[in-house]
Amino acid sequence: MSSTTAQRPSFLKSQIGGLPRPFWALWGGTLVNRLGTMVMPFTGVYLTQSRGLSVAAAGLVMGVFGVGSLLSQLVAGVLADRIGRRATLSGGMLATAACMLALGYSTSLPAILASMFALGLVIDVYRPASSALVADLVSAEERPRAYGLLFWAINLGYSVGMTAGGWLAGLGFVWLFWIDAVSSVVFAVLVWRAVPETRPESRQATGGFGVVLRDRVMVGFTLVALGNALVYSQTMTMLPVAMTSVVKLSPHEFGLAMALNGILIVVVQPLVSGWLGRRDPARTFALGLAVMGVGFALTAYVSSVLGLAVTIAIWTAGEIVTAGIPGAIVAALAPAELRGRYSGLFGFAWSLSAVLAPLLGGPLLELGSGALWFTIGGVGLASAAGMLLLGPAIRRR
Questions:
Q1: Who's near 359: CB < 8 A, 6+ residues apart?
Q2: What is the 3-state secondary structure (H, E, C) of 187-232?
Q3: CA-CA distance, 111 to 109, in Å (whole number)?
Q4: pTM for this one?
Q5: Are residues 245 and 354 in the same domain?
Q6: Over 90: is that where the pLDDT of 44 sits?
Q7: Which of residues 196, 220, 243 is at a domain's end?
């Protein structure tokens, strides 16, 4: 037997071994759900082409979705601590399936608005429950690797789902809604049958968010997470606009360059997640944030597909470094009975960034590419500095 062959089982064991069976059920459900995530990337196209809404009306619909999303993870965090992680996750997925089908068959603007608000309210309910489940099921030493594997599953599923969704949209948008709904139901059933309830019993779990908001370390970390989210959200808001409208790349060229992000994550992230998980979380997260900030700042100099690909490779490297670490930090900061709420507050930062990113990015891009990308890079570096300042407090936990 060659040394390479002999080393392969050891390498695989280091990447996937040592994690409990219920975690893999959660991982499998997450992958299936992301494989079926086809509606949201094509929502704008669906609203304008299939339902004939104006751009302004479509913007209103997406704004209503954002309002629901802002409330989603805060409510879900409370539910995960009060009624249980499994019930919250499975119930959220079933509600998502129902809202997907309601939106797919809505034809009037009032019905579409109601469906989109409801969808925004339930589509991310699973996130705090999922994060709390990982913290409950997996030892502290293995959590960075476990959260990193979930991150990998999400990106793998999303990449495949995006490709299939673009093809299926040509056959009819209703297919996207049905596949998304079915994948949500599969996730709900898999978790309900294969994942035990892990919520600890405690009187604290009946309270509100007061305990979380009094935790200054967690509030500080949430601000760092907001900075991280504002940087990354530009990939879905201002980056496409800047590259197609200012740099004059075609949509095909932009899509080709952006595919590099998914490829690098799928190929590289599993290879380094175990090693990164053994490093100091605060310093590692700060490094990833700084690399992301530099990558986005360099976007100011992009004038070709090759230049865009280089910057994408840089900030994707930072994204890979940060994968899995935030969830592990939140789990370390949170009392066991409040992990849902802590995860909900962390998720709220990402929901808020989806609203703030275009509001901040649009005016900055009007001032010029340099104004936008140097500011975004500065936000990334400031977040990295904040993470280093929080490091001693996090290590004491």
A1: none
A2: HHHHHHHHCCCCCCCCHHHHCCCHHHHCCHHHHHHHHHHHHHHHHH
A3: 5
A4: 0.85
A5: yes
A6: no
A7: 196
